[in-house]
Amino acid sequence: MDLLEGDLIVIKLFKKSTAQISDENPSEFTPASPTFSIWGLVYTWQLVFLVYSIVNIWRKTDDGFLYIHPYTLHAAIFILFIVNMFLNSFWLILWDRFKFGLSACVIYVMLTTIVGICVLDHIFLWQQRWDFIQLNISGDIWAMCFIALNGHAAYSAWLLVAASLNLTIWLKRKLLVNFEGWATTFSLILLSIGIIVYWILENFIFPSQMAYTWSPWLIWFLTFAGILSKHRRLLLQKSFNQIFVLTITCVCFGLFIIRVILFSIRYSREEIPTGLHPAGL
Q1: What is the pTM of this model?
Q2: Computed over its alpha carbons, how large is the radius of gyration of the chain?
Q3: Within 10 Å of residue 12's Cβ, how many Cβ atoms?
């Protein structure tokens, strides 16, 4: 439904695109219009994931069909994925009807389902990684990392942004004019907390399991670039929220540099999976 949104507008199922609705409900959190093309990137990644999953139905190893063993693409992943797609379609309808309160609730549930998928992706691949080595299909470990782990992580990162934007628009409509800026501030704080929690998880709690999950940083940097680009005049006027966005961007850049340094050290010490040892030691 998201990919066909333009055609669905023509047949009047939708009145406007998601970007148009965002532009008509401006906030200091709203990024520049080209930023919304991230939806296309995210859904292309999900399509690649589905194609990879379907192809695996016919692939066989010495132990039988690949979708049975190693059982990394668990049925629960697809159940949550289907639920997420239904919720996404429902969210599009609510968003198109300006039901920002309900749509905010729905998109946060969507975020929960895709985060659940990410957790399962990492757990099952880590548990089954040695089976790929024993079956001489270690390349699938890297395929899973890029297609499933990073694809779903990118979707999660973008939904965190989209949910924060949805919440901003809803809060702005509820607050008095003098307090509208606090809607953006509150959402930026929530987004910052989400990013920091993710950074802690990937670097100190699950450094091996999440060693090659990099896509969220791409999404977040594109988002902040889009916000700063759209509101550069406000930044020059020293708007509190735009200074806050710039500060978050700088902090994220610092966290990313630390992430790269920690990854390099652990890779050189073979404390995480490497090219020669894709399952780790």
Answers
A1: 0.93
A2: 20
A3: 7
